[in-house]
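Lay summary

Proteins are chains of building blocks that fold into shapes. Our project writes down both the chain and a compact code for its shape. Here are two examples, one after the other.
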Amino acid sequence: MASIPYIDIHTHQVDSDPEILSIINMTIGESKIELNKDQAYSIGIHPWDIEKLEIDSIDNYLEVLSADKNNIAIGEIGLDKLIGTDISIQEKFFIAQLQLAKLKQKPVIIHCVKSQEELLRIKQGNETGTEWIFHGYNKSLQLAEDLLKFGFFLSFGESLLRNEKLQNVFQKLPLDKIFLETDDKHINVREVYQKAAELKGINIEVLKKQILLNYLKCF
């Protein structure tokens, strides 16, 4: 029987380790030619890249990329109030990509910075029929509980290794709504799994099995 993989739900680095199942994040300007032929990836227009495109130009771009069998999610997409792009413009791009996720029946990987109220409002009016994964979660328990009520999965990365407040939040959350990731950090996802298992007081194989179940539910 094959061993249960470590799942890195959101990363910017290709990992050749056969024990790690990585979902590579792709953005405009990047080429999937560099990926192995069977490498799973997500694709989307990040809020930081919106100014490079016109809203009317994104349909064909995303349609072509999302048709690839290795594209298993739309993302990372979302909202970010720390950048200069008007939030209303960000919302238009976000909703357009949510419509694609609904059409293609693919989960979405969410980037959200200081825009939680807008995110929840948009989710209420734009259900995709697929799962939404809030990546890089490092906020409060209250927000985590609010997101869970709206059906989100929460993904934790490097911050879980060192942020005691976040560790306390993580300990209180259900494992069936959790993912782990490395994002753009130069760490091994095994480190995140080890810390997560420690915080939950469970064997790492138990954790791997639950996250695999979460993955199969979403993808």
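And here is the second example, written the same way.
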Amino acid sequence: MNRKSNELAEIHMTIPSVKPTREAMLACVARFQDLRRCETGLPDMQLPDCKRAFYNVLGFDQPKGEGKFSPFGDRAEAHVSHLTAGFGVSFIAAEPGKGVLMHTHDTVETFMVMKGVWKLEWEGDQGDEHVILQPLDFVAFPMGVQRRFECVEAPAGETEGLLLGVIGGTAPAAEISIGGIERLIEAGIFQRETSTA
């Protein structure tokens, strides 16, 4: 062995190297055409202006706690469900004018527009703000910021836009804003709690 080979032989890797079978790696592949479309699982999805669909790629556990929801709902099964990655990935499809109620997460949530034009809105220190995003544009919402999204325009010849959502955490939670909860109560989806005091 030459000197360079000896030096390489003495290098110690700190991350264990794994050599999976082809079958094990193929279980980590999610082809869009194979993803299951899910149009239920979150309370606001029952509202006409909040109809959307999830194509859940990489999931996480359901959060614990009253009034907390998984960001992708409790019915969008992840195609790649055997890995604990520390984040979840889902595509979200919606027709123009449809989106989600204002809500927040206990982790960072990011979006990249894949198809169409989308409005990403948040509650800022001066009131509601928004940005319009085109394909491959990206936004990251910090933890605790009230946010929402809405498809503004579908691509030519299609009826829906498509977002890619990535949310940090192993069991992230979403909470609908107070205004959103009021909308759900008005629609009969939620019931107002009554005090027995």
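What can we say about the second shape? The first helix runs from residue 3 to 9.
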